[in-house]
Amino acid sequence: MTDLLQRFSQKYAHICSLSSIGQSVEGRELWVMRITTNPTTDLPGKPRFKYVGNIHGDEALSRQLLVYLIEYLLTQYGRDLRVTELVHRTDIYILASMNPDGFERAVEGDCTGSSEGRENAKHFDLNKSFPDKDEPFSKTSEDTPEVTAVMKWILEKKFVLSGSLHEGSVMASFPSDDGSSYATSGLTADDAVFRHLAQTYIENHPIMKMDNPGCPDDPNKHFGGGEMEEYNYLKGNCFEVTLELSCCKYPPASQLFVEWTNNKEALLAYIHQAHIGVRGFVMTRSGFGLPDATISISGSDRNITTWMFGDYYRLLLPGRYDITASSPGYLSNTVKNVPVIEGKATLLNFTLEEPVEEMLLLDSSEQPLVANGGLSTPAPPIPRSPIHTLDFRHHSYDEMEMFLQLLSAVHPSITYLNSAGQSVQGRNLYVMEISTNPGVDQQGKPEVMFLGNMHGNEFIGREILLNLIEYLCRNYGKDPLVTHLVNSTRIHIMPSVNPDGYELALKAHKELVSGDLSIIGHDNSHRVDLNADFPEQSRLGNTVEAETQAVINWIKAHFFVLSASIRGGFRGVVYPSSIDSVDEDMFKSVAEAYYVQSQAFEEPQACDVPRTREKKGIKHHRPVATGTDMLTWAYRSTDTLAVHIGLSCELLPAEELLSEYWEQNHGALLHFIEQVHSFVRGVVTDGHSGKCIANATVMVKDSSHHVHTSSTGQYWRPLAPGSYHITASAPGYTPMSASVRVLETPLEQVDFKLTRDTLQPSVEEAEQKDFEKLVEWLLAPGELDQLIRSLLPAQTLQYRTYRERSEFLRGLTFNFPRITRLYSLGQSTEFRTIWALEIAGNLEIPQPAEPKIRFVAGVHGNAAVGPELLLEFASVLCLNYGRNPAITKLINRSRILILPCVNPDGREQAQEGFCLSSVGYTNAHGIDLDTDFFYGNSSTQPETRAVMDLIYGGGFSLSVVLEGGSLLATYPYDKPNQHAQNEETLRYLASLYASNHPFMHLGNLRCTEKSEDIPGGILKGADFSTHTGSMKDFSLDVGICPEITVYTGCCMFPSESHLFSMWMENKLPLFRMLLEVHRRLRGVVRDSKGRPVSDAVVVVNGSVNLHADSQGHFTTLVAPGTHQLLVQAHGYQQELQQVNISSDKVTSPILIDFTADSAPLSQGVFAIATASLMSVLICGLLIWHLRSAKFSRIRDGVRWLRRKRDVLQMEAVASEKSPLRQEFPDDSESEDDPFLVEGH
């Protein structure tokens, strides 16, 4: 076992570490395998869980099963979603053999065991050797060193949950459930929690849940004090359940596979229970965790205490509780009515105040309310000055590390802590990102960067930035400015670039070492000044220090708008020495803003730098070096404009002065962040497709500093007020320029729509062509099936309760955050969340070329197969993203929405194995949801309303709904006597699913004794089950999205063993429908100048009307064949095109250009002609009256006018709205009409 565990620890070192907690009597190691991310470091925010096996040496099965469990967790990490989630979220410890000496004397095949193997080498029963609650501990470490080691381990780790594994029976037991006298000592305070924990294991064990294992009585088994589970509960904060796994204590090896199969699910499910109840932190006002603080629950006398970081985990069942946190020297804090929900721990943080006189005098009515997980409770008053909330002192590296980890754990929604690299001596260069949805490039959010401690002996930069991190975290949601900045900006802070130098300088400072403190710790461990270590552009192949390289990589991985290095030893804002005049004005503006906002520069000091360029300011601070300084490098080589901000004349200011420096500068630092929203910004897009262009270059005339667009096509360019000429360019596109005048207003938006250079092929075009070839390859016979067979299986098929389904979906988004997003569409009648899972390669910015497909299940709760098939489908997509090129490209160019269960209330009521039962068919109000989709119905069910809102605003190309109770596919309409305009396409889509199903296309239902034959396995919905208010009808009429309903099998709720075969039957058609949306008809409508026509209507085959979007794009699914497109738009001539759609080819986008914008010209001509002819007519009549000309001449003149009218009408035949049509009479009018004028 030792050799195997050591091999595991070497092979899987990234998620496990092996250590010994002590030795047995005979000197054998008590090996513990720790399995979690960062397995060699204690981190806050993870509950600690343990399994202990082989406590009795002759009970050998538990030892081997725990070795199997170790191997399973290690090998399935990254492959099995549940395992990956467990390892990420839990700190798992496994002691496979607590009694290795006894095991060596045990005999394989001995099911009843013996005292010789049961006890340790000193003949003590280890499970009965723990100190009894009522008696002093009588055992010595020489008698039971195993117990001594485990007791120390329990007290040190403060485990949340534990399982003690035994054999000799098949059952689960816990303190006081054996009817002993423990009930009088408080052990029953958590009786319900213990029963839930035990029941969790029992329900997942096929033999144990039968409650009749038939095991013979164990003569060695007896109840009494001194057991390990009792010690865990009373002394160690830990709930422990004793799990008896098998009747046979040491079964032969041939039975191990069966025993592993019986226990695997139960072992995993039990670990999950460490995440129920309430969790959080108990902190001081300065934000530091309070270890050993007490957490008490009203009505229970069993308290727990916090761990080293101040974090706690209290297992509780669903309900509402009054919870109190207390610690000696602090005022206790009670939160009442805390809700605990099923399956997920409620987050509840406490801040404890010291009992100062000011608080006693405060009127309680002035106390603000702080929300904790939806709770409102009076909070400590927020001081007027921000300095009183922070901790001002010199932090060692270890203290800084713990401080950052704690803040990250307490504020997970706005922080992302990572390491940009390591120092020469191996210390992490931590970076804290503070923003909503941190770690993700987001539309509209500029990035700003701070770094400190570039010189290790410049303490002030490091400490002020730690204060800034804490201030932003603690005041988010309380201070309006902080909340605005965090919501709208990605703030990156590296508090220590040179941790090695800092540790050396800190030691010298504390020990009062003689020597020049301005030198000690200034450089890194290789005695290199990091600020002079950045590469020169003209010197290729420069080698730089590890810290410098980490900073370079970090800056180049982002698109920082402004950057600041916080320094000591001088005061003032310093910028690069060699810059263009355009940017010098900008730097001066940034510097002046800092001086105005800071309180530190009201009185000058000797170390103040002149408010000019660096070469005139701190020339004496720049060492002689072969490299260049960071500011110059950043200006020449990156997007950011960087400055040094010196805060103090002292390099190592005294701790008592730190609060003063923070008070003077924190407002200016916040304003520095705010400034990134005051410049020129914009988006660079493809003028044809509207897609964002990443890494486009944005240049300002007379400046050599160029910026580039991020992955979302955004750019920010800091510029001082004035007029500028800006140009955007990208490979394959014609550059575009714009003039802009920057004022004092907060923002100037300058967007660029680039047109492609016809002489250079676009990268996007090449990628699109490659993708089209991939789709056509997969459409070839047998290729898609071959691809699916090669995919990594998810193997997650099982029926899940609502809680399990919710946790599974959260696990997917946790493990695949780049391509998944989980959100709520609403809540069911019984307030269960209706989840939607979105899978896409670019979640943040939908692209016009991305088709959107919807997969839905669980409209009827008793159709239980559909939800599990969709979860398996989602898992396979996620697991193979990045592993399989075809799947990766499909996800990158698709937007897949999976709605696994529309009716979670009905699903909870349905029963496995009941094929024809109607239990769970309706929602909790007894409504069939598929009859409730009526547009404008105010009494719609909440489940229906949630889905209707999704359909109405979705822009989907196709929807597939999985149902049960039959074996066929149906298409709209479900309502009677209704004919769909595109019925040919709808029928084709249904046949596409059926033809890829191994049995559905045969058309023989075989679901009743009276067999029915349905050609091709497809039917119109009304021919199968006619009804109104169906989802597919609503989707087609309101959502303009074709929807088919697939009935996956005759049984509504078959046994779980059938799920695998049903997945094998349906996985190919599911993938085929995903492929189908890429075979759609699509195009763009433009005018003669290439501008999109947003109000164009494309009429397909004279019946289906498609409306172009704002970029002129239109798309629809059509059956293979020849189709006629009539394109119309107000003010334009209509265009007619014919297109051929193939079943195994991708149709290239159709480009429709209106060749003549004739309406405005025609109307202008008609207006002029009308005025002219009326003038001529009036003049003619006047002349006739004045001169009494002959009648024949008048009639000839009128005939001439009519001939001119006919000529003009021929020229204006294209326009039906000519103003002249109202001025001239019809051709049927008599030539004698003019005589009426004379007569009158």
From TrEMBL:
Q: Where are the transmembrane segments?
A: 1164-1186
Compositional bias (Acidic residues) spans? 1225-1240
Region span, Disordered: 1215-1240
Instruction: Fetch the SUPFAM superfamilies from UniProt.
Output: Carboxypeptidase regulatory domain-like, Zn-dependent exopeptidases
Q: Where is the active site?
A: E244
Q: Which residues form the Peptidase M14 domain?
A: 1-274, 393-676, 798-1077
Q: PANTHER family from the entry?
A: CARBOXYPEPTIDASE D, B, PROTEASE M14 CARBOXYPEPTIDASE
Mind telling me what this protein is named?
A: Peptidase M14 domain-containing protein
